[in-house]
Design a protein that fits this description.
- There is one protein chain.
- The protein folds into four domains: 220 residues, Orthogonal Prism (Agglutinin, subunit A); 133 residues, no CATH class; 110 residues, Phosphorylase Kinase, domain 1 (2-Layer Sandwich); 237 residues, Transferase(Phosphotransferase), domain 1.
- Helices cover 21% and strands 25% of the residues.
- α10 packs antiparallel against α16 and α13 packs antiparallel against α15.
- The longest helix has 30 residues.
- It starts with 13 loop residues before the first helix and ends in a 6-residue tail after the last strand.
- The structure holds 2-acetamido-2-deoxy-beta-D-glucopyranose (5 copies).
- One 2-acetamido-2-deoxy-beta-D-glucopyranose binds next to loops.
- Pfam families: B_lectin, PAN_2, PK_Tyr_Ser-Thr, S_locus_glycop.
């Protein structure tokens, strides 16, 4: 077949004509040509371009600008059918890289009468005026074969259609395989039927939705034949032999997931093909020897075939038989002579019970990791094991080497034992119930007698256990199963978050009787707090350290790990916690759940992004955030929270450790009281009583509480008064060094008596009027020495709400004149009033 190549370097067709003609002939020809163009509107084909209105006839081709690729009509091999395709211009044995009409060949009879025409913005392939293939875009102004081998339709705005989006069996450098445009366009290679028929063949090479960065060869669409393994740093371990001249790029965006590759040396001609037998081939052209050199072919051996050995088996090409079971597994189908059917794979010697989450994991080294991983990006190290062990569907895990985890659910497929120096290998950790470990009786060959004996014994024992277990399980079931903290969703967790409903209804009765406190398993708490890492620590409270926990959905919780000396039983602790967790109010920190396990008692709270009040109040610069309005809002919020605890909750909680560091601030700087009910959770007595344990913090403790261990709602009111004065003055009570070693209370009282009390107000506050006066007076009323003189928190709330309420005149506060801690109780004279010690006293045994 004759071809009329039109060299694309030529600006116009004239150059070619010039070579053959004299000047006059040229003029004549030119005239004829122009006439021809005028009437037929075609043939002006240069720079590898078909312009609007032009046609490429079957005796013509277009060539890319750099002369590398040629597009035209061809018949493969000895076939009599014709196709429009692209091949390498300079490679003698025609190597077709793209076919337009692969399923609709042009019969030989129509060949001379066929053309590729640009008309009305579309590209049509006509044979005898019948359209047999089209690229319909409506808006294209030209069709161009680019230097990359990409045949595009474009207009002034850019490319509208490209052959790279519709590859046949060849993947050229720069082209993509994967998904584009929200998965609407799948770019995958599909093999030819045979070397003389480019029609849709049986094998495809592409990516899969949810298949990660791997490449797959499938047969007949969905039957998986091979997978590449995960793309890593520009290469696939299974295609490593091309890595010195090309690299792969994996792109994952919201609207596209694809792989592309690029060849370092632009002069090198290379391609990836899926051939009609289902083999992936990576080839590069050797200019010197004028042959294609095969760098890689896959699948390259039996073990490379996808899941050859079936589930839970390992393929090892050096072994005979090639397939073997993972430790802890036996062949699913046992035949005579203990041979087994490879493809049916292996099953566990005993099914996973997942009775406890203390899964054991067996490490299998140097292995091609199983297919279908679920990958989890976690910035923390060493927690894949924990994440896997808390979910029974996770049968194995591996570290992905980049701080993330690969989790494998269910059966493990397509494992191959690799030589230990293979870069494609990884370590897999396979879940085992503790009993199924080797050496603990997984040998199934037993004497019949022994079998009979053990069965009888087993039945007896089971009968015994069953009754016991049933009772045990019943009691356990009522408490609900342990939950995974990592999976907690704060937004959907109505139980812990319905407090917003119960805020303003005044009497605040909890209406949710079905409330069940989530109990989290310890390992998920370890995972969330990065193993209680020091970097996650938020602070050290009176009852133990508090950590920031991160859930899988990136929400945060606060985890309080209670110190272990609580004398309370676990059941008691749980019941108390449940009661306390039911207290829900806008000004109380919500408890999300707890964990009681392995001597651990842990409470999980909602996380407060703005830390605690003391963090702002006692810091010279941060306190500027707290203007007067905010401070009033905080005082009122604390009063409301306390009012709820004292009067409206059904438990009548005395906080006993109210202080600035126990007032947490949420994102909008709303105050939330924390640590309420701790005394109770820790096994304190019910209401006002003498207690042998004193919980409290110097500076906030009422005198009767500090010295006699007497606590009541009035001791909380005292602490509230101290807090009020601190908030107004911006100074700590404990650690305040006024003249004569006066505490903040003494100082305030001094000013009050001398009518200079507005001097107490934090100088950074811009309050011109005398509003603070009323607040200081309420504060002083709360810190009066005698409990009987102090108002109830309900009175305080009324005074705060209603400016018309007349205020009593305060008596002198505690710790000033008259009674002091030191002289009232000489035995405790070591306690320094002026100490800056702000520690919580959590244990003070009475003798
Ligand atoms: C190419 O084919 C077209 C259409 O069949 C014909 O008009 C033209 O003369 C042919 N050109 C050559 C050089 O054969
Ligand atoms: C080019 O084609 C695109 C897509 O069909 C279209 O939106 C755009 O208006 C066209 N531009 C021109 C200059 O015709
Ligand atoms: C693929 O599908 C075709 C028709 O759907 C069928 O004839 C052929 O046997 C299948 N090939 C294999 C290997 O399953
Ligand atoms: C692949 O090679 C290109 C060109 O040499 C380079 O820009 C790119 O960063 C490489 N990609 C990777 C993942 O190494
Ligand atoms: C366990 O993992 C599977 C797969 O990721 C998930 O569908 C399931 O919800 C998980 N179950 C629990 C209890 O976390």
């Amino acid at each position: 077949m004759e071809k009329n190549p039109i060299i694309s370097d030529d600006p116009m067709i004239f150059k070619m004509v010039k070579r053959r003609s004299t000047k006059s002939m040229f003029r004549c020809f030119c005239f004829l040509l122009l006439m021809f163009m005028f009437f037929s509107g075609c043939l002006c084909i240069g720079s590898g371009t078909i312009l609007a209105g032009q046609s490429l006839f079957s005796n013509q081709t277009i060539i890319s600008k750099d002369g590398k690729f040629e597009l035209g009509f061809f018949a493969p091999g000895n076939a009599s059918n014709f196709y429009v395709g692209i091949w390498y211009k300079n490679i003698p044995a025609r190597t077709v890289v793209w076919v337009a009409n692969r399923n609709n060949p042009i019969p030989q009879s129509s060949h001379s009468n066929s053309r590729l025409a640009m008309s009305e913005g579309n590209l049509y392939l006509y044979a005898n005026s019948v359209t047999i293939w089209a690229a319909e875009t409506s808006n294209a102004s030209e069709a161009v074969i680019l230097d990359t081998g990409n045949f595009v339709l474009r207009n002034a705005s850019g490319i509208i259609w490209q052959s790279f989006d519709y590859p046949t069996d060849t993947w050229l450098p720069g082209a993509s395989v994967g998904f584009r445009g929200f998965s609407n366009t799948e770019m995958k290679l599909i093999s030819w039927r045979n070397p003389e028929d480019p029609g849709i063949g049986a094998y495809s090479l592409g990516m899969e939705l949810n298949g990660g960065s791997e490449l797959f060869i499938n047969r007949n669409g969905s039957e998986r034949r091979w997978r590449s393994g995960v793309w890593e740093g520009g290469a696939f371990p299974s295609l490593s032999r091309g890595s010195n001249f090309l690299n792969f790029t994996y792109v994952s965006r919201d609207d596209a997931v694809y792989l592309t590759y690029n060849v370092y040396n632009e002069g090198l001609i290379s391609r990836i093909v899926i051939d009609f037998l289902g083999q992936l081939r990576l080839l590069a052209w050797s200019e010197a020897s004028q042959v294609w050199i095969l760098y890689e072919t896959q699948p390259s051996n039996a073990c490379q075939q996808y899941a050859l050995c079936g589930p839970n088996a390992i393929c090892d090409i050096r072994n005979s038989p090639t397939c073997g079971c993972l430790v802890g597994f036996v062949p699913r189908v046992r035949q005579e002579w203990d041979l087994f059917d490879f493809s049916s794979g292996c099953v566990r010697t005993r099914p996973l019970q997942c009775a406890s989450e203390n899964a054991d994991f067996i490490k299998v080294s140097s292995i091609r990791l199983p297919a279908n991983p679920e990958s989890l990006e976690i910035r923390r190290r060493n927690i894949c094991r924990i994440v896997c062990s808390v979910n029974c569907t996770c049968h194995a895990y591996a570290d992905n080497g980049a701080g993330g985890c690969l989790l494998f659910n269910g059966d493990l497929l397509d494992l191959e034992r690799l030589s230990s120096n293979s870069s494609a290998g990884g370590d897999l950790y396979v879940r085992m119930d503790p009993v199924a470990l080797p050496g603990k009786g997984n040998r199934s060959f037993v004497l019949p007698l022994a079998l009979a004996v053990s069965i009888t014994a087993g039945i007896l024992v089971s009968c015994f256990c069953l009754c016991y277990l049933r009772r045990k399980l019943k009691s356990k079931a009522s408490h609900g199963a342990h939950q995974n903290l990592l999976l907690l969703d704060l937004n959907s967790n109505g139980t812990a978050y319905n407090k917003h409903n119960s805020v303003r209804n005044g009497n605040g009765q909890e209406n949710n009787n079905q409330y069940e406190l989530p109990i989290f398993n310890f390992s998920s708490i370890v995972a969330a707090t990065n193993d209680f890492s020091i970097t996650n620590k938020l602070g050290e409270g009176g009852f133990g350290p508090v950590y920031k926990g991160e859930l899988l959905n990136k929400q945060f919780v606060a985890v309080k790990r209670l110190s272990r000396r609580s004398g309370q039983g676990l059941e008691e602790f749980r019941n108390e916690t449940e009661l306390i967790a039911k207290l829900q109010h806008r000004n109380l920190v919500g408890i999300l759940g707890c964990c009681i396990e392995k001597d651990e008692k842990i409470l999980v709270y909602e996380y407060m992004p703005n830390k605690s009040l003391d963090f702002f109040l006692f810091d010279a610069t941060k306190k500027e955030v707290l203007d007067w309005t905010r401070r009033v809002h905080i005082i009122e919020g604390i009063a409301q929270g306390l009012l709820y605890l004292h009067h409206y909750s059904r438990l009548r909680i005395v906080h006993r450790d109210l202080k600035a560091s126990n007032i947490l601030l949420d994102a909008e700087m709303n105050p939330k009281i924390s640590d309420f009910g701790m005394a109770r959770i820790f096994g304190g007595n019910d209401s006002q009583a003498n207690t042998k344990r004193i919980v409290g913090t110097y500076g906030y403790m009422s005198p009767e509480y500090a010295m006699e261990g007497l606590f009541s709602v009035k001791s909380d009111v005292f602490a509230f008064g101290v807090l009020m004065l601190e908030i107004i003055s911006g100074k700590k009570n404990a650690g305040f060094h006024g003249s004569d070693c006066l505490s903040l209370l003494g100082h305030a009282w001094n000013l009050w008596e001398h009518d200079r009390v507005l001097e107490l107000v934090d100088p950074i506050l811009d309050v011109s009027c005398s509003r603070p006066l009323r607040y200081i007076q309420i504060g002083l009323l709360c810190v009066q020495d005698r409990p009987a003189d102090r108002p109830l928190i309900s009175d305080v709330a009324a005074m705060l709400n209603n400016e018309q309420t007349a205020l009593a005149s305060p008596h002198h506060p505690a710790y000033t004149a008259g009674r002091t801690l030191a002289n009232a109780n000489p035995r405790e004279s070591k306690v320094e009033l002026c100490s800056i010690n702000n520690m919580t006293v959590s244990l003070m045994e009475a003798r």
